[in-house]
Specification:
The chain is an alpha/beta fold and 201 residues long. The protein has one domain: 3-Layer(aba) Sandwich (Rossmann fold), CATH 3.40.50.150. The protein is 26% helix and 29% strand. A hairpin with a 2-residue loop joins strand 8 (172-181) and strand 9 (184-193). The N and C termini lie far apart (37 Å). The relative contact order is 0.14. It binds S-adenosyl-L-homocysteine.
Length: 201
């Protein structure tokens, strides 16, 4: 349903396009946004949070270069939409959300929709989910001022993390981080973005 829009904006990965096509975004927003559920823009999901713009979801997912069976940590479950897209790609997803109401709603929604292989966590994603680390991929969907050290520690060697970084008052950028070894990472600035803040507990 987003195919033509996201292709026009430069998403080429067929598996990502298929996953975007398969996950019905309308099921992740309240009824009052049904008419605009397929528009390429962020929408409110309550608790002053938003479901990301479909292009950004596709772009971040493509940048992660997910391979079937990858262990993926998502920070900021929100509506669960991005979680569903990751799961459709064959990733084994753990997701963490700090807001109790959104945590409850999204875990119920995804379970009701038949996603039975996702591990849901409630808490501060700045600290990651150490029990299930290391992760092949980490995706952060809210912006910290700096990349949290715990997330780098929980990334596997050769793992990839995609994360928006920056204060609310300045331009944020999406970064793709690759972990070369325990002491070295590479950092590519890939897109200017606007995300809600990653809250510190
Ligand atoms: N991926 C979501 C987008 C959610 S917006 C979707 O597809 O709908 C970002 C989310 O990050 C919000 O739900 C917010 O509550 C959550 N968040 C903010 N700070 C957090 C933190 N420290 N740990 C975990 N989640 C956090």
């Amino acid at each position: 349903m987003f195919d033509s829009d996201v292709i026009k904006k430069g998403i080429n990965d067929q598996a990502v396009l298929q996953a975007m096509h398969d996950v019905d975004r309308r099921k992740f927003v309240s009824d009052k946004f049904s008419d605009v559920a397929y528009d390429d823009r962020a929408l409110p999901i309550g608790e002053e949070q938003t479901i990301s713009q479909p292009f950004i979801v596709a772009f971040m997912t493509e940048s992660l270069q997910i391979e079937e069976g990858n262990k993926v940590l998502e920070v900021g479950t929100g509506s669960g939409y991005q979680t569903a897209v990751l799961s459709k790609l064959g990733a084994k997803v753990s997701t963490i959300e700090i807001n109790k109401k959104l945590f409850k709603e999204s875990s119920k929604r995804l379970t009701d929709l038949g996603y039975d292989d996702i591990s849901f966590h409630h808490g501060d994603g700045n600290k990651g989910v150490p029990d299930q680390s290391p992760y092949d991929r980490i995706l952060v969907t809210a912006a910290p001022a700096e990349i949290p050290r715990d997330l780098i520690d929980q990334l596997a060697i050769n793992g990839i993390m995609v994360i928006p970084v920056g204060n609310q008052s300045e331009v944020q950028y999406l970064y793709r981080i690759k972990k070369l070894n325990d002491d070295e990472i590479t950092k590519d600035k890939i897109l200017p973005v606007y995300f809600v803040p990653l809250i510190k507990s």
